[in-house]
Write a structure and sequence with these properties.
With 97 residues, the protein is of the alpha+beta class. The chain contains three helices and four strands; from the N terminus they run E-H-E-E-H-H-E. It has a four-stranded antiparallel beta sheet with strand order 2-3-1-4, with helices on one face.
Length: 97
């Protein structure tokens, strides 16, 4: 599992100009089963995405296709972790050591 932390690298007006495309990209990743939660940070200086996947390299390739990255308005910090404990709703994503 991965925590994807987005940090805006451009003013919010530039971020907002790409927001519709970013949301469409998010929707594609939800439909593919890669993303399970996402949202803006507060204060609004970026966002956070909870993603599932087997390979960090695949997640890195995926984040490079985010319109926010393509348009140069955000940078990603990717943290991989092993989800050994989850709520019942997230039980399908539990991992073992």
């Amino acid at each position: 599992m991965f925590v994807l932390e987005l940090s805006y690298t451009a003013p919010l007006d530039r971020v907002d100009a790409v927001l519709k495309e970013h949301v469409a990209w998010l929707d594609e990743q939800y439909a593919a089963g890669v993303f399970i939660a996402s949202g803006r940070k507060n204060p609004r200086d970026g966002g956070v995405i909870l993603a599932v996947g087997d390979e960090r390299a695949a997640i890195e390739r995926l984040t490079a296709t985010d319109p926010f990255v393509v348009e140069g308005v955000c940078a990603y910090r990717i943290t991989e972790f092993i989800a050994t404990k989850t709520s019942d709703a997230l039980a399908p994503y539990r991992q073992t050591l």
